[in-house]
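anyone seen this seq b4? input:
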Amino acid sequence: MIVVIAAITLRSQRRVMNRTFHLTTAVVFIHRAVRIIVLATLAILLVGLLAATVARAECGPLKAPEKEQIPVAFLISDGAQVIDFCGPWEVFQDTVIPSRTDMPFRLYTVAETTKPIRTTGGMQVVPDYSIADAPAAKVIVIPAQSDPSPAVLDWIKMSSKTTDVTMSVCTGAFVLAKTGLLSGKSATTYHGAFSRFAMTFPDIHLKRGARFVENGNLATAGGLSSGIDLALRVVERYYGREVAQKTAYNMEYQGQGWMNAESNELYAKALVSTREHPLCAICSMDVDPKIAPKSTFNGATYYFCSTDEKKMFDAAPDKFVSHSAQ
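predicted toks r here
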């Protein structure tokens, strides 16, 4: 009887030891797994923090010359949108540095040739320089305008090798994108051109809802008045926030978008065209359904501001519909 009890007791002890061993092993395994997960998470956060730090460094303060003026070239052509280049022009011309008696920015217009051009609204501008003889610029402003020639695109690419900022305004982003400089980067443009931009440049990450987007020495602003904010942001990068705020104050400009690049959230979502309020399927502008060109796709009717936009839609209706829904 004593032998049997001893054997039973021994087996019980072994079971307890085995359970304890397995439990200990499980605890050790879980501890190691948790530690690996924590370390991996910290590594990911650290990488993200470093990437954000690098991005901030790339788009941080710019070194302003002590005495020399900063040359700013405004690249224009027929159809240039007036506010796209005149807005930033006003910002740069109104910037004042108390310790200087001259303007800190030297402004001039550049075009493919010096032949007079017609901007929106019929304004005539005689360019100061052609791309063949324009002074080297530290800032280039590219407003919405007509399609650029290969020579103009080459000028932008070559000039941007030494600029502090090459910035587009509105659909000027299409001109900058055609140089290839924005490939693989983020950008924004006029909200009415989001779908067309996304279709035309699938290798560029389109940021809807951004007042402006900065990538190293490249920057893109949203539509029209967004160029004023991006120009104020450039002033801030050169001379600090106080100077930029004083510039905005002197202009009686009350917009705050230059201090918050994500402030165009209102335009992040496309407007919806309805029977009561039809919109152009390309640019989202109001249309009169009685006279507007129209197309039918998948049982739905789409209206357009012009026959050119209708042709654009008809060439790839499925893509326009999918991009407009984003």
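The first strand starts at residue 70 and ends at 75. The chain has three domains: 1-58, 70-267, 270-326. kinda curious what u guys think
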